Fold this protein.
Amino acid sequence: MDKKDIYEHLAKIYLDASSKKKKTKKVYPKFFDNIYTISAVFIVILSLVFLPLFFKKSKVFNSEIALVLLVDTAKINFNFNPAKKEAFSLALNKLSLKRFKALGFSVKKAKYNDNISLRVEFENAFKEKSEVYFKNIPSRWQDYKINLSDFKNISNWSQITRLSFTVEEWNSKEKADVVYIDNVRLLR
């Protein structure tokens, strides 16, 4: 045998041996496939059970279902020299409020020293009226929520025609000021 034959023989042995090593594949038993499937199902089930509990306790995801009645900020600019009261009203066109539980709104006054009370009033198609007073309106935005059950004189909430916000002369220390109302909404 000469050198050339020896090199060819060694190359053939080496190449055959290296190709056999590459072709060998590790085979896992079916047991491991089942463990991966079972653990994935277990993680999904735990997520479905515990994530809703986390979101219920989290204040970040706490939201309210509301019907917004007023998009822009309303302004009651009162001057009690000739008038005795100033009001801002929303026509509700016989809106049914049976499925709602509360009224929410934000309010502030312009002057810091003034002491103002705000009257909030609902009226239905049967001419029933009921009001609730909010005392000491702040000079910074404050959010108020009131249950509709606090409006005692309304017996039928199926056809509400009007919602009014009123500043009366006898409920204001100053004779002239501005009250701003925003984010008026009905809450479920």
